[in-house]
Amino acid sequence: MESLALQAFSTVTITPFSLSPRSSLHLRSRPITKISQPSVFPSSSIPTLRSPLKPLLLLPERPKPLISPIRAVSRNDSTPPTETTTSPPPQGAKLFPLFLSVSIGLIVRFLVPKPVEVTPQAWQLLAIFLSTIAGLVLSPLPVGAWAFIGLTTSIVTKTLPFASAFSAFTNEVIWLIVISFFFARGFVKTGLGDRIATYFVKWLGKSTLGLSYGLTLSEALIAPAMPSTTARAGGVFLPIIKSLSLSAGSRPGDSSSKKLGSYLIQSQFQSAGNSSALFLTAAAQNLLCLKLAEELGIVISSPWVSWFKAASLPALVSLLFTPLILYKLYPPETKDTPDAPAMAAKKLENMGPVTRNEWIMVGTMFLAVALWVCGESLGIPSAVAAMIGLSILLLLGVLDWNDCLSEKSAWDTLAWFAVLVGMAGQLTNLGIVSWMSGCVAKVLQSLSLSWPAALGVLQASYFFIHYLFASQTGHVGALYSAFLAMHLAAGVPGMLAALALAYNTNLFGALTHYSSGQAAVYYGAGYVDLPEVFKMGFIMASINAIIWGVVGKFWWKFLGLY
């Protein structure tokens, strides 16, 4: 797998706890070296990441929402760094994954008997949909390309008319997700996220545990207005953690990593899922979950407020306990960091006063969040509120159109999300989901499971199936609707089922080094070995499940969700 680099937006020389407003750190696995910035990226400083190992034979390539390949440069290079040409990647689809993906659809279409309750059109669409989902897991092509082929197949075979096939491209929620990528870029470009996190280091950073709490709380604070966990990890928190670790003599790839860096990485990584689950707009997959729930008739009024109320107590409890639990289970060798507040103060001094663009970013985000909270009473949908915010950033020059065009992951997300959402919606309209729900209901009735027991079994299944996925959003697109239908068939209250699955989608992002974008970012820093990622991922997943299950049981009962 290629070396990977996170996109940043400024040029600095690497020093421990860099005094630049937008720090950058060169990250490599054994050994680490300092570099000067490659001239091929004249306006950015980019940390190189260690590539995660392929965990399973048929797992897909990890999505790369904010990353691009770069060449590693040695400090001892005598020639100036220049852009180098590499051998082109293999062209076209990977034959074995292509064969398997297509075969699944053909087997369902021609070899599996069609149930009498299902129309030929619905059965054919199901076959195309399953082939598309198989391609998401097996990756014969990039996700967007494979989704487009699935969309084309549905039109060419006359399974769907053109208008129906493209209907989801006008979906408000999908455009809200796209705009969220632009907001995340604004946070990183202006340096506002870096400034906020540095203030928390200054206030709480006298001890390692306090430092961890400062970073965790600062992420929770900026999460609702920076709806990308990968952007938060790569653009804000990893550079700060790396700087602090190096200043404490904690280096990636050797025994000194245990001094500070490995603990801070694990703590931030395991806490990020709770920050994303706390707010509807803290992660793109949250919005997709609610849209898919709406397709099944679960409409949540005042979604931003309802989401926050239901998530607030279990998420906050988890956020408070995660750094402390890891401090006991995965203790750092360095317990005190007395120099961190002073370094943070020096960094803030070098950053200077809050810039015009940062103030505009703050005001725009307050406006957007206010409209997300109160927009329903004002008649302003969430997507329109986001459009207003983006328009302000463009008009005042905080972002320019090239910034938006360069967010390739946003446009890729638009393409493949819209295809999946459109197919899922048509499957519902054609009766496939109701037929599947009926089948599941009969099985659950034969097992004599109560709905709370069915809720536990289905939630655990949905959670641990993520070991087979390398994308939270891909997992949602593939399985959320099916699992929600199973919950409803088992008699689980609709709003409880929809929200619990959505919260779970954030929590399983820390299971492995490939389970999410931020997982790849933190693992790539080189401070945590692969066995530790899997071990602590499973342990903290179990602890989070207990916290959310116990606290949520009483809190959601109090809120009237069941």
TrEMBL record:
**What membrane topology is given?**
Multi-pass membrane protein
Q: Name one Pfam family in it.
A: Na_sulph_symp
Q: Where in the cell is it found?
A: Plastid, Chloroplast inner membrane
Stretches for region Disordered: 70-91
A single GO cellular-component term from the record reads: chloroplast inner membrane
Keywords of the record:
Membrane, Plastid, Plastid inner membrane, Transmembrane, Transmembrane helix
Transmembrane segments annotated in the record for this chain: 95-112, 124-149, 161-184, 359-378, 384-402, 414-437, 449-470, 482-503, 536-556
Q: Name one GO molecular function term.
A: malate transmembrane transporter activity
Say yes or no: keyword Transmembrane helix present. Answer: yes
Q: Has the keyword Mitochondrion been applied to this entry?
A: no
Q: Which domain of life is it from?
A: Eukaryota
Q: Output the InterPro entries linked to this UniProt entry.
A: CitT-rel, SLC13A/DASS
| Entries under PANTHER family matching the protein | DICARBOXYLATE TRANSPORTER 2.1, CHLOROPLASTIC (PTHR42826)
Q: Which family does it belong to?
A: Belongs to the SLC13A/DASS transporter (TC 2.A.47) family. DIT1 subfamily.
Q: Which NCBIfam families match?
A: dass (TIGR00785)
Question: What protein does this entry describe?
Answer: Glutamate/malate translocator
Q: Name the species this protein comes from.
A: Gossypium klotzschianum
